[in-house]
Design goal:
alpha+beta, SH3 type barrels, 14% helix, PRC_barrel-like_sf, PRC-barrel domain containing protein, Bac_photo_RC_H_C
Length: 123
């Protein structure tokens, strides 16, 4: 997978341009991560800011849209191709200004890009 694709929705993810995912539940292969607090794109790096609630001590995490494997608009869920532990181990997201920091975004993209590929399951 080219590095740029970590910042683009995968073909077949169910993403529709202009779609508002705010409030959708984000689900990993092994459980719920949280909900989409907001969507952003800076420097062509599209990502979701996910509020984890109490799961990761009330902090948010930044998830590149390239790890989104499925969007169910009826159920309001976004499924990602990683585990909860992998999301938790990602570079720490502290402030909103980091969503506009090219170096921070690059480190997040590099982290997710290096994760082992996951097989998608047909439903």
């Amino acid at each position: 997978m080219p590095m740029e694709s970590i910042w683009s929705y995968a073909v077949g993810s169910g993403h529709v341009e202009g779609q508002d995912l705010t409030g959708c539940t984000v689900v990993a292969g092994d459980g719920t991560i949280g909900h989409v607090d907001r969507q952003a794109e800076h420097f062509g790096m599209r990502h979701l800011v996910v509020d984890t609630g109490v799961w990761v001590f009330g902090r948010s995490v930044l998830v590149p849209v390239g790890v989104v494997r499925g969007i169910d608009t009826e159920a309001r869920t976004v499924t990602v191709a990683c585990t909860r532990a992998e999301v938790k181990a990602a570079p720490r997201f502290r402030t909103d200004s980091e969503t506009m920091d090219r170096e921070y975004l690059a480190s997040v993209g590099d982290y997710y890009h290096r994760l082992p590929p996951r097989e998608t399951t047909a439903e």
